[in-house]
Amino acid sequence: MGSMVEGKKRSILKVFKRKSIGNRISPVNNILINLFFIMCSIVCIAPILLIIAISFTDEKVLLVKGYNFFPEKYSVKAYDYVITAGDTIWRAYGVSILVTLLGTVLSLMVICLYAYPLSRQSFKYRNFFSFFAYFTMIFGGGLVPWYMVYTQLIPIKNTIWVMIVPYLMNAWYMMIMRTFFKTTIHESIIESAKIDGAGEFRIFFVIVLPLCRAGLATIGLFCTLGYWNDWWLPLMFITEHRLYNIQYLMYQTLNSIQYLVSGSAQFAESAKILAELPSESARMAIAVLSIGPIIFAYPFFQKYFVKGLTIGAVKG
Amino acid sequence: MMQIKQGNTTIIKPSVNKGFLYELKNNWQLFVMLIPGVIILIINNYIPMFGIVIAFKRYRFHGSFINSIIQSEWNGFKNFEFFFKTPYAFQITRNTILYNLAFILLGLVIPVAFAIMLNEITNKRTSKVYQSVMFLPYFLSWIIVSYLAYSFFSIENGFLNRTILASLGMEPVKWYFEPKYWPFIIMFFQLWKYTGYNTVVYLASISGIDNEYYEAAEIDGASKWHQIWYITIPLLRSLMIIMTLLAVGRIFNADFGLFYHVPRNSGQLYPVTDVIDTYVYRALRNTNNISMAAAAGTYQAVVGCITVFTANFIVRKIDRDKALF
Question: Which of A111, A132, A117, A163 is nearest to B46 (CA)?
Fold first, then answer.
């Protein structure tokens, strides 16, 4: 009797826990694996902690002792300086925010509008347009012609648009979104809306998009991360100081000392930045401030990234 | 549009016989939706594809882009000849391929091992914490990574020189001028950034495996090792092959940020850090050698395209659904 109850309990347990008790690894192995991952976690997080520590280190201590995890003297001067005197930094921050917001909204629109017709079984040319997008993932013209297009053909060099337009369409995200539409929206919903007299645009904006909020969030976060972390487009196309985004500003400030020493062509430009940002700890403070929003949004990122990965893996 | 009644369900079939104009008239709204994407793809991807002719010309600026292309004289394969005669052609190809091979191998073995171990941890909540922490580096830009690297490797103030080596009584190392350390540093940061991400991908696949397999194996007396070796790995094999082949397809493309920002574009390190992407960038922007940059870029694009097609062909043979096209 007792053993039967016990057995029942265990089978219920099995439903809730993925592994039965007997199939677990031994406690010793469990501890070893845990220790191993604690080490890995430290390796992953330590460099970030180091730059945070540096940003809070007193400048004089920094010069005497170098970078350290546990500074002898703490100071918030770097942040004070960055927040009050760093006009350049707030500008760059503003550019980053503007580009990220505008870029995310626009590229979500472009991607969704492209993905939706391709998800429709009744759209005859969906294979052609799918291939039209896929092909860009396989073959490209290389850096030089691409550079020429944005500097000569459509001269948007040194404008905010050059940091947005090249990333508006992404074939991979488009594929994920198409799969999302395909699996979420049944053709019969669209048919019935059509019978009720709704046009395609109305169906798309009023019925389809609200049903696909999770997909929008996933792709939206992909785009946000892409735009926020972008340094490639400013590196290629932005020479004007006032249009630097936060990533590119960091790149320039890390290199400024090197440039001064080597006396390169960008000497004058670097000197200007260096005069405004003299301290080592201030540089690290900018880096910390640029990671800030990512850490803040991290729980969302994680949730939707994994979702996006699993959707992306199931190709429709 | 044809509707075929089949029992209670209606199957909607696209009309087969009607032409493009009919479709355009009937579904014009769907075509309108495609317009923004098509325009961006044409500007960003298709026009540059035709721009490949630059590699076969002596490119000179003549006003507009199209005019420059038309006016520049043909140069045949001279640009390529010139490029392949430089010692860099071999160096950057070797670096690109060797690093990618290392990344492919390590990017397969380590994440799979990590995913299997994480899956075995008894306490699921701690497992989630490890995943979150190890996933974090994926979200940082290469600029930030170059800052992190700099805080360790900085010659004057770096943590390694000032704290670790000093406390061991060793001489400081000029990290940014010593090529011999960099293959390891590059590989470390690549793994540091992407291991968490790849682990999560494999872990998602492992947690999709039906638990009954393991229960049955346990009843038959299979040890943990046997279960991993005969159940988990065979069930992961298709994902492992796909991920690997997709990476093999991109073996000619290097991550510009990793090779440019992390070594801080230090000239002394080029023998071990210069890859095709960084070479093309410098030829275009720093030395302003457009023909050479175009030749190297085209070489990369064409060979890269061949490897993608080959890899995709193999993926198709293994698992049709996972193929890119």
Answer: A132
pLDDT digits (tens, 9 = 90+) for A51-110: 999 888 887 788 778 888 888 888 888 888 778 766 778 889 999 999 999 999 999 999
Contact A244, A92 (CB under 8 A): yes
A103, A21: one domain: no
Inter-chain touch A124–B23, beta carbons under 8 Å: yes
Task: Count the residues in chain A.
Answer: 316
How confident is the model over B191-202, as a mean pLDDT? 92
- Structural domains of chain B, ranges and CATH numbers in brackets: 2-71 (no CATH), 83-322 (1.10.3720.10)
Query: Helix or strand or coil: residue A8?
Result: helix
Residues of B in contact with A255 (CB under 8 A): 264-265
| Closest residue by Cα to residue A211 from A308, A116, A93 | A116
> If phi over 0 gives left and psi between -120 and 50 gives alpha, with beta otherwise, what is residue A295?
alpha
Strand partners, A70: none
Please, are residues A296 and B129 in contact by the beta-carbon 8 Å criterion? Answer: no
Q: What was the ipTM of the complex prediction?
A: 0.86
Interchain contact, A148 vs B54, CB within 8 Å: yes
| Residue span of the structural domain in which A51 resides | 2-75
**pLDDT per residue as tens digits for the range B226-273:** 889 999 999 998 888 878 887 888 899 999 999 999 999 888 999 999
A240: CATH: 1.10.3720.10
**Model pLDDT, residue A46:** 93
Q: What is residue A261's predicted lDDT score, i.e. its pLDDT?
A: 39
* Pair A124, A240 in one domain: yes
Residue B147 CA, chain-centre distance (Å), reads: 22
SS (H, E, C) B237-292: HHHHHHHHHHHHHCCCCCCHHHHHCCCCCCHHHHHHHCCHHHHHHHHHHCCCCHHH
Enumerate the β-bridge partners of residue B6: B9
Buried residues in B237-269 as b, exposed as e (16+ CB within 10 A): eebbbbbbbbbbbbbbbbbbbbbbbbbbbeeeb
Comparing alpha-carbon positions, the chain B residue that sits nearest to A265 is B286
Looking at the structure, do residues A39 and A138 belong to the same domain, yes or no? no
- Among partner residues B37, B211, B227, which is closest to A169 by beta-carbon distance? B37
For residue B60, count CB atoms less than 10 angstroms from its CB and return exposed for 0-12, middle for 13-18, buried for 19 or more.
exposed
CA distance B104 to B108: 6
Please, what sign has the CA dihedral across residues B278, B279, B282, B284?
Answer: negative
CB contact under 8 A, A68 and B1: no
In a domain, A315, yes or no: no
Choice between A116 and B319, residue whose per-residue pLDDT is larger: A116
Bin A250: left if φ > 0, else alpha if -120 < ψ < 50, else beta.
alpha
At residue B113 the predicted structure's pLDDT band, cuts being 50, 70 and 90, is very high
CB pair distance less than 8 Å for B14 and A116: no
| C-alpha distances in Å from residue B59, one per residue of A144, B36, B70 | 11, 31, 9
- Give the percent of chain B with pLDDT over 70: 93
Q: Is the pLDDT higher at A279 or at A168?
A: A168
Tokens in use for A136? 């860009």
Task: Encode pLDDT of A170-188 as tens digits.
Answer: 998 998 899 889 888 888 8
Closest to A110 (Cβ–Cβ): which among B12, B40, B118?
Answer: B40
By CA distance, what is A229's nearest residue in B? Answer: B141
Looking at the partner chain, which of A129, A134, A145 has a beta carbon nearest the beta carbon of B324? A134
